[in-house]
TrEMBL record:
<dbReference type="Pfam" id="PF12850">
    <property type="entry name" value="Metallophos_2"/>
</dbReference>
<dbReference type="InterPro" id="IPR029052">
    <property type="entry name" value="Metallo-depent_PP-like"/>
</dbReference>
<feature type="domain" description="Calcineurin-like phosphoesterase">
    <location>
        <begin position="4"/>
        <end position="154"/>
    </location>
</feature>
<keyword id="KW-0479">Metal-binding</keyword>
<dbReference type="InterPro" id="IPR024654">
    <property type="entry name" value="Calcineurin-like_PHP_lpxH"/>
</dbReference>
<dbReference type="InterPro" id="IPR000979">
    <property type="entry name" value="Phosphodiesterase_MJ0936/Vps29"/>
</dbReference>
<protein>
    <recommendedName>
        <fullName>Phosphoesterase</fullName>
        <ecNumber>3.1.4.-</ecNumber>
    </recommendedName>
</protein>
<comment type="similarity">
    <text>Belongs to the metallophosphoesterase superfamily. YfcE family.</text>
</comment>
Length: 169
């Protein structure tokens, strides 16, 4: 049965925004699995996503401390519809990322990451799919705040979509 995934990273609440955009909360409600690649900043969002998500897989980021590091792993892992999916905050510089991650995560099919706030979607020569959803709250030098959705089904990742959020008022 297809599983709907929501991919988030670098939410930085409440420093970069007071809350997630309404569109993202709707996506949380629609998702079977929410994946968050770290830099939460405040444990309140973790509490809310745990309560509201059908299933949450997540990790801590470099800006996460205290209870966030106590409650979350550095690398989160899940098996979903025959896919081995991992989530980590940092993967280092873009140059050489595919080779480094293929080596470090040889047992995964999909690795979701964050840190840069730059959306990323590539597949390595070993078949590892690397996805960075960007940030739904802090676009930095990007033209839009973003997040991703995808579908896991029968061992395949399908319908990977980067969603651009409208500018905040």
């Amino acid at each position: 049965m297809p599983t709907r995934l929501l991919l988030l990273a670098d939410t930085h609440l409440p420093k970069r925004a007071r809350d997630l955009p309404a569109e993202v909360w709707h996506a949380v409600d629609d998702a079977d699995v929410v994946v968050h690649a770290g830099d939460w900043v405040d444990v309140a969002l973790l509490d809310e996503l745990e309560a509201r998500s059908a299933r949450l897989v997540a990790c801590w980021g470099n800006n996460d401390h205290g209870a966030l590091r106590e409650r979350l792993p550095e690398v989160g892992r899940i098996e979903v519809e025959g896919l081995a999916l991992g989530v980590v905050h940092e993967t280092g510089q873009a140059k050489g990322r595919e080779d480094r991650m293929s080596s470090a995560y040889a047992n995964l099919d999909v690795l979701v990451f964050g840190h840069s706030h730059i959306p990323w979607d590539t597949t390595t020569t070993t078949g590892l799919r690397l996805l960075n959803p960007g940030s739904p709250t802090d676009r930095r030098r990007q033209p839009h705040c973003t997040y991703m959705t995808a579908t896991a089904d029968d061992g395949e990742l399908r319908d990977v979509t980067l969603h651009r959020l409208p500018p905040r008022a």
